[in-house]
Amino acid sequence: MYLILHIWRQQGPRDKGHFERHEARDVSEHMSFLEMLDVINEQLIEAGKDPIAFDHDCREGICGMCGMVVNGEAHGPQRQTTTCQLHMRQFQNGDELWIEPWRASGFPIIKDLSVDRSAFDRIIQAGGYVSIRTGSAPDANEIPIPKGVSDHAMDAAACIGCGACVAACPNASASLFVAAKVSHLGLLPQGQAERPDRVRKMVAQMDAEQFGACTNHAECEAACPKGISISFIARMNRDHLKSMIASSDDVEARPAK
Amino acid sequence: MQKALTLYQTSIGKKAVMAASGVILLGFTLGHLSGNLKAYQGPQALNEYAAWLRSMPSLLWGTRAALVFAFGAHVFSAFQLWSQNRGARPVGYRRKKSLATDYAARTMYWSGPILLLYVLFHLAHLTFGQTFGFYEFDKMNPYNNMVYGFQIPAVLVPYLLGNIALGVHLFHGIWSMFQSIGINHPKYNIFRRDLAIGLATLLTLGNLSFPIAVMLGYLEPTTQTFYFPELE
User: What is the ipTM of this complex?
Assistant: First the structure.
């Protein structure tokens, strides 16, 4: 396969950045998208040039490290697939690809296609702890949870925090990520003790990280490599409104970065 | 010491304000359409209805105040959310493909301001009697004011455009408000879309039926003269 690539190159957060044209020759259709980029990088290194920086780790679609926007689609054209699991057979010989990083104020660019997603870590941290009984291991099935509820919680917990929802959202909103994280604990009995506080703290942090607001385009759901439903966003909204109206404990406004 | 976060300060709170004010405005448009249907019972019926509305000043002004408040809240929080969303992506994509969103959702920031202009035009025309010199405004005869207006293309066109914008805006808005305030259940979610399509279609076609009826000659000007003390 022969491909023309326009890859975003940016030296650092303050650099303006530009697209750089590359030609990928003899690409095997069995390569993953990242392997295709590895080959380009080998060539760049041999030529004494700066290789393209991009994030990756497990390369089996479960860690959430990789991700780039390929021809306007977060993680590329295959649905429910991370960039590392996207294979070159999804493309045609002679295709021209525009490869860009996640673009959002909340995800400053570190270099090239690599973005700083520590905003997600801070949202998780803001959620705080879950009260559990420590000591000896509890019996399995000690707390009865209906199968439907545990499945639903698992659907939310499938989120790998890759940030494709933010990248795909026209408003760069992190609502799907936060909703998934709020919901997988909020659905389970173990998550009830801190449930009202957790949602308010996480939403406050989400806003402070300069993500946009949800305007219900559902682009995030289409881009999510784990197929997480926007019904979780409705659930987060409901939990948040209930908690803000009913709870007697205040949550402090968090300063913007 | 930091201040406690108020609901409105959160993005979700602002979306709830959008939804709540949207429901009030939606309720008004439904009431407005159902009242206007009196036109099909003849000039007498519509003009009596207009006089009846003005016979209860406290209810009339209470409703107007609520509508102005809802309209203001809707526009104000939309503006705040818009500026937040703009700031969230300072550098855009060279290429961006839409996978799920629709025309109505993408054009909310266009259909909204168009509706604002349309409402101002509509108030200027039939509430304040601005006929742009095309015909004589008769405050005792709202029926004729409407019919004469729709016979003039320059007046007719904003009504057509305004109501199409209304339909598009409501199609996304009605579905969206359920999502924003978290009314969501797999058993009933299908009805949210149906309700959005149904109400948006009903209101657009219902409102447009008046200018169309005038154009087709079904609603004609009346030569009758009216007097209602409430309309003074």
Answer: 0.93
